[in-house]
Specification:
The protein is mostly helical and about 70 residues long. It has two helices and no strands.
Length: about 70
Amino acid sequence: MKSSTLKTYIAVHTWVGLVAGFALFIAFYAGAITVFTKRTAHADQFRRRGAQGGQRRRGARDDAAAI
C-alpha cells in the first residue's frame, strides 16, 4: 500500500470518527434532555411553589413533633 493512500485513509478515518462522535454526542444529549424533561419540569414547579410560600407537605418529623 502506498504511503499517500495510507495517509488519506488515516485522514478520512479521523474525520469520519470526529463527525460520527459529534453526531452521537448530540443524539445522546438530546435523548437525556427528553428522558429527564418531566423530572426537571416537576422540580422547577416544586421550586416555584416553594418560593411563593405555598403549602408545605407534612413529613414524618412534623408528625412526631405534633405528638
